[in-house]
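My hope is that you will study the record closing this message with an eye to the fold:
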Amino acid sequence: MIPFSSDSEIQETPELTQEFLEHVLYDEEPLFISDEATIWDVSMSTSEELTKRISEYYGKIVSEADLKQPLWKLIRKLNEGSDRRKLIS
């Protein structure tokens, strides 16, 4: 059996993760996202395409350094101070 890295951090915010997958990585289908995974581990899109999608949906600018951090951290950062969840409900 192949051991997998933990996904406890990514599992703490399943709604935010699903929202990110639907609106940013809509043409990707990751089967498993570990806590160590960056966007580059689950996406084949270019940096330009990803930053454009993120900016359009979240209204925030992200840097190359942002894209290199674990995906769970990026997702939480994108949702800091957001009222979008209230608007969706």
User: Anything to note?
Assistant: Residues 51 and 62 are 6 Å apart (CA to CA). The first helix runs from residue 8 to 11. The mean pLDDT is 89.
